[in-house]
Amino acid sequence: MTHKIMPAVGLAQGILLLVDYSIKVLQKQTIIFTPADANASPAEQNAHVLQVIVDTLFRLTDAIEQAELKRLGEGSKSKLSEPAQNLLKISSEAQELTAPLIEALLQTQKKGSFGDPRWSTAREALCASGVWKERDVTGLKKKLRALRREVDVALLLALRQYLDQSAETGLPVFSETGPHTPHWEKWQNEALDAVHANEWRPKSKKAVEEFSKQVDSLITAANEAHFCDRIFARLRFEELDDRLHSIAKPHDGTLEWVFHDQHTDEGGVLEWLGNQRGEHLFWVTGRPGAGKTTLLRYLFRNDRIFDYLEAWSGHTPGITSGFFFWNCGTDLQKSGLGLLRSLLYESLQDMIYGPLEEDMGILQRLFADRWEKFRSYGGGLESLCYTELRRAFELMISDASKKFLFMVDGLDEIDEAGDLVDVVPLLINASKKENVKILVSSRPSPAFQEAFEKRPRLWVDDHTTNDIHKFILHHFSHDDSLLKLRGNAVVPEELSIVTLLSETSCGIFLWGMLATRFLLQELTGNDNFTTLQNRAEMLPSDLDELLSHILSNFEPADLETSAKISALIEAHGYSSLLPLSFALNTDEKTSLAAHRHPLKTAEVAQRIDDMRQILTYKCRNLFSIFDTQAPEEALPALDAPEKLKVTYAHRSVRAFFLSAPAVSKPSTDFDTTNAWAASHLLMLKALTPPPTSGQMRIWPYLASCLESGLLLSSTSGQQHITYLSSALDTALAHHTQSPTSSSSSSLASSKRPTSSYPSAPVVVTSDLPSFPAQDTKLTAPLDLAVLLNLQAYVAAKLPSADRKAVRHAMDYSAAMRRRIGLGGEEVWLGGREKGDERRGLVSLRAEYGKSRTEIDVLMEYYVQAVRWGKKAPVFEVGEMV
After folding, report:
1. Keyword Oxidoreductase on this protein (predicted)?
2. Domain 242-356+402-462: what homologous superfamily?
3. What pTM value is reported for the model?
4. What is the Cα–Cα distance from 155 to 69, expressed in whole angstroms?
């Protein structure tokens, strides 16, 4: 069964996409698409369109270089089949033909200026600018079309040989297909079937012409799949599910009240799910800490609600998605932009890859302007703005053939008032549709009371007292200290304390949880139930006052630790557990002295255990650890420690820390910038390469180090060259280390006829700025420093640098900047737009954007072979450490 793309098909696809795209770029009829609504989707400037075309040509060229058959061809070509060798030759010809086109487009871009009349085609741009003449265009098109025919013949021969080998060995040829089957596997099956059924042979001109139509469908499918993948990549964000996973499961036996009769009767939330009275928005509310988020998380995709939903949806296909706003999270986790991206991503994933098996053409309809830009010149793949997302969302839910249930938690956690003004009307308007129901939650602030005044609602704290009683009773029953204290006797005072705590909580589950854990942790061997009851009676019923009371009982060292953790989270956002453990106990000097080596399993385990102890006992559960992995896919903590995150136990805890600096501010000698800088460097030094072929993630760790180093310099007034050197040296050591070579084999691959193709070695690449071409290969720390324009570092290193190394760094930087073009650095440095995952690299972006004139002059001086009698240009670096 062909569960893997045939090497010939993989390389042929790469060549076909490059050749087909190049031909379209040169055609008169390929009009550069201009959206009808300029406000919703503005037309692009000439320079941007040309940059997109150049980027696409580079991307398709890179795809050829990365094809499996290319890697196999690096060895002895005599082991390869005739069609494989032909495809390798054709791929080189295709790259040679398109290289002048790329150069011509870049020259055309340079000749243009802002405000020029928009070109209607790329062909017009090339000829009107005088860079090319019409004969240059037609000549290249003719050569590309001839190359396309050669690809068709070579690919047909490869498939024919595959079928003949399969017949000889008796092995199956075709694989089963489904919604998750990649486009190439579907095409591979269809093509093999067509070649077999029609007995196509490469020597038959008619057969090649018929097969060429089959090949056209591969190009179409590949382009559609790429558009689909990129749109999904623009919708999804790395931390999309983090908030969902941070919400603790309800305590055993709690929240069952939501399924009791009063909630299945008219007015209850379950009855609302199934009714058809036109009440399509339900509001869950309650005071801070009551358990609104826990309730919505409990209901979200809970199998027990589906019967009620079906009473409303009937036989109409149903789509359920949700979003949990998080004030402690990133920009996207507390904004309308994040809401729309999440709802669209989850809904469309469900439609296309779920039981509905919707055609991916739905993305082309929802993002029609984007699709037309993509078809026109490869555009339309940049970041999605709020207006586009809202329009796509409204278009999606306008499909009355589907029913949508959206659960949106924590409207009060939206960060900006402007977002709130947009989001509430968006949800209300969506709920006016007969095929949409929305379950929302928020605190009962006046704005929400007014917005949801006439909607059915549920006050959570009216129903939680019994649940709180169960929680407290369970923890009292299972506490070792109380077990020793009570022995085998039934102690009335204990039940009295449980009742007192549950009643004092007034339905606020967070109060009950914090109070219970605080009392139990404060127990000593000299205490008795009378002492415990006295302490319980002293607990204030107000949540903020309870937090103040808990902190007042901290030891000074524990209070300092809690304050440091709060400060570190505020400076960095919720962090992975290991980096936080480093930041808590490490400084810059220690991180510089550390060696580059992966953390041992025992050390990871110890750090995880130590942090759990700190957060539970020293910080009295005011912070929590959660796993960002989906439970059904979760790896053990030691195998994926980066998935363990630390945050506040609740938004109310965070608010208290921020509002009470007198008790929650760390000592003046604790510097979060220094602490995080040390942590980032230690994490970079501890990276482990992947055990099999794949990409090693280095850049996020290096970028954090470089950003920290620049921040240290700006706050201290000293250039932290030693720190930057350590970070760059470590990253390049990871990048250039020799990958482990071994033959790739699997049960699936061993059962298919692959005698024409030798096994490929294991290849480990990195995500540092680099491309396959020789002039864009990263080889030394100075290369990266020159590209990123780290001027102080470069100036400090030049006097002792080898002249050839300086020249390579200059050439690499120039080639990379030519390769990525206008705005291309955002792949690594991010943009300034809200929601950009690398938006935090402010200092690094600013450094990259500085004028390079002075540093270029300095590098030109140090690259000279003879410098006698010449004075080095002056470049002020300042004090270095």
Report:
1. no
2. P-loop containing nucleotide triphosphate hydrolases (3.40.50.300)
3. 0.92
4. 13
